[in-house]
């Protein structure tokens, strides 16, 4: 129709205002991600794509403008489905087609053909938008909302929110429907999780503690997490059991993730800025990343060494806690199945521990989107990555059926309450710290006890720059390379030279680098193994 043509003409005119970047963008591990300066056109078109996705599903999508843990000059776009989950894989492909299209009009006509039943040019559909604190985020959010507008959709801008918060708000929108979108406020998120935490604490308020530390020293990566966690802290009130001390809570974009945050602490294995002082010895500390979807716990031991509690250990504790409550209630695996899904990065000692404790454990490729389908096969499914991502998802209807008749028991009340502290859409640093605090408080556990639930092998992640990382291909679970096979053979051989050696190489899906994981029984052996692999890549595969 001519309406269609007029709309496309207007879209093309608007699109031409954004600079062309001569490269192909791919959706990657967690959305489009690269230099913020290169993302304006991508954002505009992602706005169009998200609006189309909304129109052909139930009228809503969400988009978060963030590059999470990546350096401040980077930015990215994470697209969220109306049920709060990550963009469907089929739509990742469609997003790539639209964003890289050299003939946008034709691509839009193609979409129109594919979705004739939906009329993608009709004025309807909503996109919920959030952004992190990066300098480029405002501009990209503007471009994104412009894209949605030009294809006839409305947007609701939640401004500075965390990534998991945007997922939560989108899921809420998907549930309550368009007529009530104006009821959804960014603070619904903080209010919800604070209330869930308080509900759990109310169940154990009479339990005295001797080891639980009620003070938390929080490194906020100078990102948006500080704003939202401060709201939680305020809601908890001054007489709350949990007292949070905020550090690296500066919102100056230049400071984002700089020498602080979950990625820095985990990858560099260093104390974040402001935590270097020995006065922190023994205290319970934690780090968020730039968009607060990752959490790392840590403390400074008596020798001033950094002791990390990574995502694996956090979710081993959470899974064990849930398993224990189920078994105390006499609920069997057949009645309520439980799984912990992890990645190739899992420490061999964690795997061994889970096996000993009888917790079902599966591997999946890096990226929450890969864990999700496996998690959904179980009644209660957790997934995590050592870098601090993780969530536990429960089929609450099924749980309620299984728990019926048990609800007079404290274990049943705790199980229900603890699972509700989890952000079931996506891994969430704020929800997870509340969840872990609840468990530590119930178990009267110090951060030192937590670190001791099992002892990891020393391990570390490294990076290597190569000419074209896409030439490095891996098997499904990313534990081995299929190409270049000679490099894999070399790694296989090097692993055998150290005790409990484990190592792999994979191309990053968020940065233009290769990631190298190394693990061994001692720190020296782990470093030796890593250095040999890095050397091999440098000498033979840099220009591969
Ligand atoms: C994203 C993903 C994570 C992944 C990380 C690094 O995290 O959500 O699953 O571990 O990227 O991915 P890669 O190793 O492929 O670069 P975030 O926190 O940056 O959104």
From TrEMBL:
Pathway: Nucleotide-sugar biosynthesis; UDP-N-acetyl-alpha-D-glucosamine biosynthesis; N-acetyl-alpha-D-glucosamine 1-phosphate from alpha-D-glucosamine 6-phosphate (route I): step 2/2. Belongs to the phosphohexose mutase family. GO terms for biological process: carbohydrate metabolic process; UDP-N-acetylglucosamine biosynthetic process. It catalyses: N-acetyl-alpha-D-glucosamine 1-phosphate = N-acetyl-D-glucosamine 6-phosphate. Residues 58-102, 122-172 form the Alpha-D-phosphohexomutase alpha/beta/alpha domain. This is phosphoacetylglucosamine mutase. The keyword Membrane does not apply. Residues 493-535 form the Alpha-D-phosphohexomutase C-terminal domain. PANTHER family: PHOSPHOACETYLGLUCOSAMINE MUTASE. Its cofactor is Mg(2+). It comes from the Eukaryota. Keywords: Isomerase, Magnesium, Metal-binding, Phosphoprotein. One of its GO terms (molecular function) is phosphoacetylglucosamine mutase activity. SUPFAM superfamilies: Phosphoglucomutase, C-terminal domain, Phosphoglucomutase, first 3 domains. Transmembrane segments: none annotated. InterPro entries: A-D-PHexomutase_a/b/a-I, A-D-PHexomutase_a/b/a-I/II/III, A-D-PHexomutase_C, A-D-PHexomutase_C_sf, A-D-PHexomutase_CS, AMG1_II, AMG1_III. Residues 187-295, 310-442 form the Phosphoacetylglucosamine mutase AMG1 domain. It is an enzyme of class 5 (isomerase). Its EC number is 5.4.2.3. The keyword Metal-binding applies.
């Amino acid at each position: 129709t001519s309406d269609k043509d007029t709309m496309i003409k207007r879209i093309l005119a608007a699109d031409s205002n954004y600079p062309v970047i001569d490269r192909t963008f791919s959706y990657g591990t967690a959305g489009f991600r690269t230099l913020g300066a290169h993302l304006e056109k991508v954002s505009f078109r992602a706005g169009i794509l998200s609006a189309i996705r909304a129109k052909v599903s139930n009228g809503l999508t969400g988009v978060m403008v963030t590059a999470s843990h990546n350096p401040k000059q980077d930015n990215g776009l994470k697209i969220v489905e109306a049920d709060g989950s990550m963009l469907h894989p089929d739509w990742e492909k469609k997003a790539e087609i639209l964003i890289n299209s050299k003939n946008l009009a034709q691509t839009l006509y193609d979409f129109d053909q594919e979705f004739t039943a939906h009329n993608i040019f009709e004025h309807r559909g909503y996109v919920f938008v959030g952004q992190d604190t990066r300098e480029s985020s405002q501009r990209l959010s503007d471009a994104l909302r412009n894209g949605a507008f030009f294809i006839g959709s409305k947007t609701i801008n939640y401004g500075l929110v965390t990534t998991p918060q945007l997922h939560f708000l989108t899921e809420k929108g998907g549930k309550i429907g368009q007529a009530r979108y104006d009821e959804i406020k960014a603070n619904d998120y903080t209010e919800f999780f604070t209330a869930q935490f308080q509900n759990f604490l109310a169940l154990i308020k009479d339990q005295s503690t001797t080891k639980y530390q009620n003070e938390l020293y929080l490194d906020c990566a100078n990102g948006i997490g500080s704003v939202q966690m401060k709201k939680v802290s305020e809601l908890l009130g001054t007489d709350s059991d949990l007292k949070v001390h905020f550090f690296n809570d500066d919102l100056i974009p230049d400071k984002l993730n700089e020498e602080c945050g979950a990625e820095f602490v985990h990858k560099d294995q260093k104390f974040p800025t402001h935590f270097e002082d020995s006065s922190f010895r023994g205290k319970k500390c934690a780090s968020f990343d730039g968009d607060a979807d990752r959490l790392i716990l840590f403390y400074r031991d008596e020798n001033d060494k950094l002791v990390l509690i990574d995502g694996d250990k956090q979710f081993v504790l959470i899974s064990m806690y849930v398993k224990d409550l189920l078994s105390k209630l006499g609920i069997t695996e057949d009645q309520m199945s439980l799984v912990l899904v992890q990645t190739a990065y899992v420490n061999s000692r964690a795997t061994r521990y889970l096996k000993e404790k009888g917790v079902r454990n599966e591997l999946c490729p890096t990226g929450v989107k890969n864990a999700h389908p496996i998690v959904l096969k179980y009644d209660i499914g957790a997934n995590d990555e050592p870098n601090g991502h993780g969530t536990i998802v429960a089929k609450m209807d099924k749980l309620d059926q299984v728990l019926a008749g048990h609800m007079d028991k404290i274990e049943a009340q705790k199980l229900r309450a603890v699972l509700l502290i989890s952000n079931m859409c996506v891994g969430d640093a704020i929800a997870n710290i509340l969840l872990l605090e609840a468990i530590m408080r119930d178990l009267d556990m110090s951060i030192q006890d937590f670190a001791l639930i099992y002892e990891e092998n020393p391990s570390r992640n490294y990076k290597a720059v190569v000419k074209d990382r896409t030439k490095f291909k891996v098997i499904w679970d990313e534990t081995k390379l299929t190409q270049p096979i000679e490099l894999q053979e070399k790694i296989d051989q090097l692993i055998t030279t150290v005790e409990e050696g484990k190592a792999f190489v994979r191309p990053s899906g968020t940065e233009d680098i290769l990631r190298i994981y190394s693990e061994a029984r001692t720190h020296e052996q782990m470093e030796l193994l890593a250095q040999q692999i890095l050397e091999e890549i440098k000498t033979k595969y840099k220009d591969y």
